[in-house]
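Researcher: Next sequence.
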Amino acid sequence: MKHLSILATKVSSSLLHLIGHGGSMPGEIGLKFDQNILSKLKINGPVLLVTGTNGKTSTANMITDLLVDAGYDVISNRKGDNLKAGITTTLLTHSSLSGNVKANAIVLEVDELNIRHILPYLPVTGLVVTNFFRDQLDRAKEMEQLILSIEKVLPNYTGELILNGNDPNVVRLSYKASKAHATYFGMDKNIYSVDHTNEASEGKFCPLCGQKLDYEYYQYSHIGKFHCSSCDFQTPPLDIKLQDIDLEKETFTCDGTAFHSPYEGMYSMYNCAAILAVAKVCGISVDVAKRVFAHAPQPKGRNEKFEKNGHLCILNLVKNPTGANEVMKVIERDTKPKKVCIVLNDREQDGTDVSWIYDTFFEKIITDETKEIVCTGLRANDMALRIYYGGYQGSIRVITQLQDAIHQAFIDIDRTYVVATYTALLPARGAIVKEME
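Model: Next structure:
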């Protein structure tokens, strides 16, 4: 059945490419022939999995670039097909019919809920975890359930754990993986750190004894330096520690070396810390990491900028409170007059429960500099109500048609911010491009 599984995946993938399609369907077909096909592949070289709530796509892609620059022949699911079927498509389409994977390194972005379907069946050498936040409750359930699903497959894991040492929900994984070695990355206290936070936080209690966690400082949400008030659970010594953080210049240092982050925001610097941790584990020079940061592509919809005739439009994806809060901070730092267009959908990929908008500090953009807020998307009225309850005194418009909403956000202003949920992102991008024509 192994040969049939690989052949069916390859043939279906080729046929789909002929008509300009890709995706996970070939992997679904292959898995119907052999549910255990992943465990039957022959892989020579490191296998790195990247998971977490926020940042896994950018982090996985930069790790891929890191290994490519270091001379590896890498297979990666760059387009983000991160469920079991999509990962099966990626691996089987790059395998011989006998199951030999045609590469000497593999980097896979993996959805958090799918770690349990992937890690036990591949010879994983490194598991990179960026962070855990509450996200899409209708699909991922409560975060505790998600983390437990990962912890259940860790007792026999013997590879490297590359963990965000400032996230107690990530650090706890090392306690379930007694056969693994952990490398921790994080960030030192800096001018942006705060002693207290009102942001949505899932790191209030010790995962070992259940007592309250005390924080020396927070970077954002529950990310920071913590220790248990009752037991010895605490922020571990960081193997990679970012210092001298400058969010205006987007620079930091690590072990005395200066770096420039390819993306805006503190959360993006944590992605860079993960890359430096992988480089350390794999014995790759920091000069390679510098080149990766310098040439990292701008993902569509991740602080993507559009400019024409003096008008600047910036597009960002939002999908959960923590990620949205970081986007709000970026907009807040821009003190120039602007309009904001928010596109809120509630399709399955977005998360059908939109209550997260009440855990997001949209108040950060409710300033005198924000001249108008335009709400559109399937749940435009819900978004407008949230902005109204937030105390915004300016113009709140609800516009059904996306193109009309984008057009309104461009009128009589030189700067526009568009924030969109997952299924709204590419349509919003297309509307921006059309508006810029």
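Model: The chain has a mean pLDDT of 92. The longest helix spans residues 2-18.
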